[in-house]
Amino acid sequence: MAPNSVRYEGEAHPRTLYDKIWADHLVHEADGVSLIYIDRHLVHEVTSPQAFEGLRMSSREVRRTDCTLATVDHNIPTSSRKNFKDTKSFIAEADSRTQVVTLEQNVQEFGLTYFGMEDKRQGIVHVIGPEQGFTLPGTTVVCGDSHTSTHGAFGALAFGIGTSEVEHVLATQTLLMKKAKNMRIKVSGKLAEGVTSKDVILHIIGIIGTAGGMGCVVEFCGDVFENMSMEARMSVCNMTIEAGARAGMVAPDETTFNYLKGRPLCPKGKDWDKAVEYWKSLRTDKGAKFDKDIHIDAADIAPTVTWGTSPEDVVPITGIVPDPSQATDETKRTGMLRALQYMGLEPGTKMQDITIQKVFIGSCTNSRIEDMRSVASVVKGKKVSSGVEAMIVPGSGLVKKQAEAEGLDKIFTEAGFDWREPGCSMCLGMNPDRLKPQERCAATSNRNFEGRQGPQGRTHLMSPAMAAAAAIAGKLKDVRELLPEMQATNGKMAEPTKSMDFYSEPIDWTAPKEVQEPPSEGVAAPTSAGMPQFTSLDDVVACPLKKANVDTDCIIPKQFLKTIQRTGLGKAAFFELRYEDDGVTERQDFVLNQEPYRSASVLIAGDNFGCGSSREHAPWALNDQGIRCIIAPSFADIFFNNCFKNGMLPIAITKDIVEELWTHAEAKKKLTVDLTKQEIRREGCEAIPFEVDPFRRHCLLNGLDDIGLTLQKAEHIDSFEARRSSTFPWLDGPRYSRMKAEVRISTAKSSSFYTRVAKGFLGGLPASDDRPERPPAAQEEGDAEIIRIRTQTVAGSNQGGQVPQVLITVKAKSKPHAVPVMVASKGGAKEGSNGKQGTDW
Ligand SMILES: CC(C)[C@H](C(=O)O)[C@@H](O)C(=O)O
Ligand code: SF4
């Protein structure tokens, strides 16, 4: 099979890079919904516990352990690990510890490769993927994290997903999706010295806004991106999510191939040649259509900084704090006033007059080796201004090691910087690194939302070079003024001392540990039936939340992300808007604290609701607070998606209607949201029709979960995987063929035996949710050993019907790990996941 992208090259229907990758990953298409295969799944501790628990509850396994890579980054302290014994004793904060320990247990139980705190490859999930060559051109890459867009720098289709989708990918290696629109952002010309990739992306967000890329996959092109290093491209793609697009990408080229060659998980030998040949085909065809097109001149870009609480609040460093009275739109003006008050700034203040107390260099945007070099070139031989605390947090253990090999750590510490261990650190402050209230920080991270780096903390986003300049000056500073001095000390700014050899040092791709018996052995738990239904909300109060760009950090701040449950988050909803600083006293000016809105089940909000982080904790918190439906002019893509996964209905409707509904809600009048008829009704008014995707509507009305539905398409996934193995052999992990062989060894001798066991098991399957016991006689036969028997229910072909199946996990006695074999089902579904019994799954 030729890859789809090659087959169409140059034909009558020119296609974009995104179109091609999409086509190469299409497993199945029906009713306007596509089942897309996922090549690479990165996992971290914050968004995975509930997903693994979901697998456990429904007795499911991780389908492609060889395509899944886990690490810890958000919760871990970045203090020295010299005395590290284990996570339990190292992480002082109880909830953070629980989340990390839970991941450790999950990777053990499900047999996943894991870079834990003792592993030098541990780091921020978006730094380690590319570093290992796990991220490859032409692949689909997902993670329960919005900055997965980073990996698009390699010409991959990479995007963040919610926890329900994490579970979906773990179980099926696919996602149900709708194709996004194509958007092109072209930046032509040459960047001036002192202007970096971070300035480019901040400038772009300033122009198109945080909702500018909504519903689109962005392709960055033009000489500026072509001339960028991979690190710089990653910083740009990383912040595509801040521009409202779920994914951003740059076509792979020689820079990409040079970066990748020799990395531990990259194809080798003939596979490398074959891969490069395919990767070269991954370019947008001449004449391909983009739904949105933006052109920017590189000469217009200056070192750029943020002044407010949204990444679109940018000005050149030579600019001033803007004046809200100049805003044309009322919601915008109110937003600006609030931002200035929060940031403690006066309109008209020169940006370079703003003094700072903290500097944070790190995060998945800017914690790679080039960023380290860039900072070193500015601070070499200088001192951090007195009264400023400055920290540098490398993105991974390998970045740290390389920086130290290059002597950069000495430059930092001599200048007065605190040189830390890798992690997300003060980007989000889920670990102990946080701003104090009112502290002002020059940060290289990607979000300046209220409370992001610590409650009441004030964040200015900028490039590593600019943050370094701020550290030295004690206030925001134009790094270009330092250029002559820097040239005298360093030669050229950020001159790369290229040392790829370091990265190509052979590293073993950890073999998973022996699969352990899970605690919930044999539990027959509801799966598809677990999703609440949504039909209508009759005669209910709606709460008017007259605010645009409500981000998910605002819907639920970081301190509540440490739970390993999906429930109990109601109190956390809008925590900082809702409570005074004591966290208990309600703010009277917040609408959800007023009657009758306190118990509202419908929320009517402004544009771009739910932007920012992919945290599914946001819909969980709203749901727990009693909100089942959100009406807004537009939604951020990931949040929108996450709502449906929790039986909630987001309705996108025009601004005029939203304003009309605000007035109606302010008059405390009731309304009905009817999904069956797809309309909003108010007494004495005409019904307002709304659009909802037919597939999602069907799932909501029937309370169906996607995983159950997808598992009905198992044979499509099987045959896609077989095609993928022959067309893109480099995408299968080194253990994959062994895994398949093992199943054959295990089952060939005894497939009828397994079928007998399974049928006997199904025959005795109780109607209730009593726990059937594993028959003790069925422990082993021949070379194969049954290590786990579970029942699971999947949605049947009849709407909403539940079909029990038996999943037997077997392993060859001589081989180290286990593979699930779905052998029989009851109630009309075919036997075996691939039409055969007990083989090859
Ligand atoms: C915790 C995670 C869901 C979140 C994200 O999606 O971005 C985090 O990384 C962030 O930066 O806010
Ligand atoms: S944005 Fe910050 S918190 Fe989120 S993954 Fe990146 S470094 Fe971690």
From TrEMBL:
Q: Which Pfam families match?
A: Aconitase, Aconitase_C
What cofactor does this chain's UniProt record say it requires?
[4Fe-4S] cluster
Matching InterPro entries, A to Z? 3-IsopropMal_deHydase_lsu, 3-IsopropMal_deHydase_ssu, Acnase/IPM_dHydase_lsu_aba_1/3, Acoase/IPM_deHydtase_lsu_aba, Aconitase/3IPM_dehydase_swvl, Aconitase_4Fe-4S_BS, Aconitase_4Fe-4S_dom, AconitaseA/IPMdHydase_ssu_swvl
Q: Where is the Aconitase/3-isopropylmalate dehydratase large subunit alpha/beta/alpha domain?
A: 19-474
- Biological pathway: Amino-acid biosynthesis; L-leucine biosynthesis; L-leucine from 3-methyl-2-oxobutanoate: step 2/4
**Enzymatic reactions:** (2R,3S)-3-isopropylmalate = (2S)-2-isopropylmalate
Q: Which UniProt keywords apply?
A: 4Fe-4S, Amino-acid biosynthesis, Branched-chain amino acid biosynthesis, Iron, Iron-sulfur, Leucine biosynthesis, Lyase, Metal-binding
Disordered, as annotated region: 764-784
Boundaries of each Aconitase A/isopropylmalate dehydratase small subunit swivel domain copy? 542-654
The protein's matches in PROSITE patterns, at most eight in alphabetical order, are given as: ACONITASE_1 (PS00450), ACONITASE_2 (PS01244)
Q: State the EC number(s).
A: 4.2.1.33
Concerning Gene3D superfamilies, the annotation shows: Aconitase, domain 3, Aconitase, domain 4
Q: Quick check: keyword Protease in the entry?
A: no
- Functional description taken from the UniProt entry: Catalyzes the isomerization between 2-isopropylmalate and 3-isopropylmalate, via the formation of 2-isopropylmaleate.
Q: What is this protein called?
A: 3-isopropylmalate dehydratase
Please spell out the taxonomic lineage of the organism that makes this protein.
Eukaryota, Sar, Alveolata, Dinophyceae, Suessiales
